[in-house]
Amino acid sequence: MSGAVLVTGATGGIGRAIALRLARDGWRVIGTTRDRDRAAELRACARRHGLSLDTVLMDLTDTASRERGFAEALDLGGGRLRAVVNNAGMAMSGTVEDVTEQAARDVLELNLLGPVQLARLALPVMRDQGGGRIVNVSSLSGRVATPMIGWYCASKHGLEAVSDAMRMEAERDGVRVVIVQPGCYATDLWNEVFARMAAIGPSAYADCYRLLNAVKPLVAGRLPSPEPVARVVRRALTAPRPRARYSVGVDARVALAAERLLPARTADAAKQAVVGLRAAALWRLLCGRAAPMDGIPPLPSR
């Protein structure tokens, strides 16, 4: 199928890896960004590698910018749109209690509503041309809820739910909707996670934030390149019968399997122990029962 592939959030991390990988494989790539300078840098990077790609300015959270950028991308693609890769997103760390209403709205606008609204623009074009692909880059957090990033998890859970519905609705028109669930990779997302935690003011969870910021060097220095995600996105775009979901990374596959197999109490205890929510969580995980220091009497049995 001719036409362009539109990659959102293409100037950094996973989006950059996807845009360059697809361009290297001969796709007509159009990357979106909100920043003119970063767009120029991406084009220059592509040229240094002997590649060609275009960019358009688009703020997914702004209706006018989204529509204007989409129209420009469609024009660059000769009126045809082979695929949309919804990758743009933001992190949101902090407990549900500590994240402000505006911050929660921001992450839902960019991670959930923005990709869905872009898909709404793409679907009529793909229907008229007889098909296409929409790949929504979710996360391990799209299936596994984790303390300290609850609003981020909510945005990705929502994106997966809408993607599932869209997959069933659009199939009859030859449009395949695919979810990609990356684990942890070396991107600016992690710097954003830790920076947001460090900026949270007085909190009942301050000890947890201090613990997580203390392990930042260990986490940030050991994460792999996002290139495997780019390869999986290419597979999702080219497979004759793509799967509904592709998980990427050993950590993602292990965590998703554990979420399916472990009892909720055991999974909760493991996650609580990892982020330092309660020392007793580790005891409960190992012993399978509440520790004396929990201080909360069990509910009476019925």
Topology:
Blueprint: E1 4-7, H1 13-24, E2 29-33, H2 36-48, E3 54-57, H3 63-76, E4 81-86, H4 101-129, E5 132-137, H5 150-170, E6 175-182, H6 188-199, H7 206-214, H8 216-220, H9 227-238, E7 245-248, H10 250-261, H11 264-275, H12 279-287
Parallel strand pairs: 1-2, 1-4, 2-3, 4-5, 5-6, 6-7
Helix pairs in contact: 1-9, 4-5, 11-12
Which CATH-level-2 architecture of the domain at 4-188 and 224-248?
A: 3-Layer(aba) Sandwich
In terms of DSSP E residues, the strand content is 5-15%
Rounded Rg = 21 Å
Derived from helix and strand composition plus strand pairing, the structural class reads alpha/beta
Q: Look at the structure and give the mean pLDDT.
A: 91
CATH homologous superfamily of the domain at 4-188 and 224-248, by name?
A: NAD(P)-binding Rossmann-like Domain
**CATH fold group of the domain at 4-188 and 224-248:** Rossmann fold
- Report the top-level CATH class of the domain at 4-188 and 224-248: Alpha Beta
> What can be said about the biggest beta sheet?
7 strands, parallel
- Per DSSP E runs of 2 or more residues, the count of β-strands stands at 7
Inertia-based shape: globular
* pLDDT < 50 runs, ≥5 residues: 290-302
Strand line-up of the largest beta sheet: 3-2-1-4-5-6-7
Gap from first CA to last CA = 62 Å
Q: Helix amount, in percent?
A: 40-55%
- Helix-strand topology string: EHEHEHEHEHEHHHHEHHH
Number of DSSP helices? 12
